Amino acid sequence: MGDRLTGLGVSPGLAAGPAYRMADPPRLPAPRQVTEPAAEAAAVAKALQAVAAELNRRAARAGGPAGEILEALAMIADDPMLLEGAEQRTAQGLDAPHALEAAFGEHRETLAALGGYLAERAADLDDLKHRAIAAVLGLPMPGLPEPGHPHVLVARDLSPADTAALTADVVALVTERGGPTSHTAILARGRGLPAVVACPGAASLPDGTLVSVDGATGEVVTGITASEVSRVLDRAGAERARLAASHGPGRTADGHPVRLLLNIGSATDLRPGAEGVGLFRTEFLFLDRADPPSYDEQVAAYAAVLAEVPDAVIRTLDAGTDKPLPFLGLPAEDNPALGVRGFRVDRVRPAVLDTQLEAIAEAARATGAEPRVMAPMITTRAEAAAFATRARAHGLEHVGVMIEVPAAALQAGEILREVGFLSIGTNDLAQYTFATDRQHPDLADLLDPWQPALLRLIGECARAGLTAGKPVGVCGEAAADPRLAPVLAGLGVTSLSMAAVMVPAVREALAEHTLEQCRDQAASLVPLG
Questions:
Q1: pLDDT confidence tier of residue 394, bands split at 50, 70 and 90
Q2: Is residue 441 over pLDDT 80?
Q3: Which of 107, 183, 256, 513 is catalytic?
């Protein structure tokens, strides 16, 4: 065996093959004297239009969440403010490539300073900048290698555009940067690709180096032999065949139920094999729009899901200044992650929630369904009570809340006096517990769902649910980790909600342990007393 690199395993599975690196971005040429500023401005506009058009083409091919990500990136490339900033610089004497460099740099600094979701968009600007500069120089846009055969893709980082455009030849992903809740991790899990992030040294591997990737342990072995590649592929094939035969509800080896549910953004994400929907992210209806979706549009979207899954858990709009929606008209904030987001938007725009709740209620009446609704970013018992009152006023009786901040986790028992269930969003709960930006490339280890403090908070919520006789699920990315599933079951979690492709592996992991063994694992990690 060769050398071993270690990162964070964020999408389980085994893969092996030759590694190929992402192409480097174009080098900025030396500045040149500008004699026709109008021509440089026209070149800038043409380049940005080319980038937006290419991203929109990819979006149409990709569809689903990947397509939505690409459409959002195309909108950034088509932003009139970005174009205006670059054109102003050509008027000041900069050539087109350097005008784009300067305009993107200004936008990036502005977004990075805002933190949270907007800081994530700042990282996306680097990819868009490289594409625009390549276009204005007449070079191929930077992107994925195409060796013409199956390979492991390695990179310093992957933009959403690159991750969404992966072909069937990519058998695994390895990046030097990224974290467990990055676009790379989420889309890799959605596609069933083994993935390792935060893996130092990966992007330095020479093209063609034979490697094996374990997306569960985070181990990447380099310089292996062809026969070792074959052995890994045989193991991976046997594992896929075993999981393909998996079916039925989530159960421990001795029959203790743990419901396995789906995270979806629309009815197109529904897949067989799960026991329901644990998280319907309704914000995909609202994102990147100048106007909110109409009442009728919302009713149709909710009814399409409820007709298939009558008891689906629908999360109300999870947005605000960390996921900017122009029609909300919210003011800019110095720290959006700690500002008006999730349920807090109701403080300034209550009509948005009322319209959404009434649309869900109408969809329920039209389909004969009994959906469960929950609010994001609940912090206090009073907020939980306020949401429950509003939902029930619209005829929605099955009401719950998301637990995403430590204050709510520590008050889980009190909150459960107001609502019927809890759903733990481990992505944000980790961010707020460890004071760690979810997108920070150097702090990914602090967002590891195995962190004892995070598991302790999950356990507190689960114990409160057991005392109240009410369900407590997990719908963050931690729910999709097969190794962690027995621990969560041992803590008392009653359901796990994830991407459809992860359901078989989680089902099998639960079935390999009795409830007592699950509890022993949990107690060894976080003794709750």
A1: very high
A2: no
A3: 183
Check pLDDT > 80 for residue 255.
yes
Burial 82-92 (b: 16+ CB within 10 A, else e): bbebbbebbee
Q: What is the pTM of this model?
A: 0.72
Cα Dmax for the chain: 79
Rounded Cα distance between 442 and 178, Å, is 8
Query: Which pLDDT value is given to residue 116?
Result: 53
Catalytic residue among 394, 475, 513, 518: 475
Q: Whose CA is closest to 113, among 446, 437, 331?
A: 437
Cα–Cα distance measured from residue 485 to residue 387, given in angstroms and rounded to the nearest whole number: 30
Task: DSSP letter for 286, please.
Answer: T
CA distance 162 to 206: 20
Please say whether the dihedral angle defined by the alpha carbons of residues 465, 469, 475 and 478, taken in this order, is positive or negative.
positive
Instruction: Kindly report, residue by residue over 518-527, the tens digit of the pLDDT.
Output: 999 999 998 7
Q: Is position 475 annotated as part of the catalytic site?
A: yes
231 Cβ contact partners less than 8 Å away, ≥ 6 residues apart = none
- Token pair, residue 13, equals 């599975």
CA 72/CA 84 separation, integer angstroms: 19
Report, in angstroms and rounded to the nearest whole number, the Rg of the chain calculated over CA atoms.
24
Structure tokens at 478: 């931690």
How far is C-alpha 69 from the chain's CA centre? 10
DSSP per-residue string spanning 212-238: EEETTTTEEEES--HHHHHHHHHHHHH
Residues constituting the chain: 529
Structure tokens at 303: 């009814």
Report DSSP letters for 450-509, one per residue.
Answer: T-HHHHHHHHHHHHHHHHHT--EEE-SGGGG-TTTHHHHHHHT--EEEE-GGGHHHHHHH
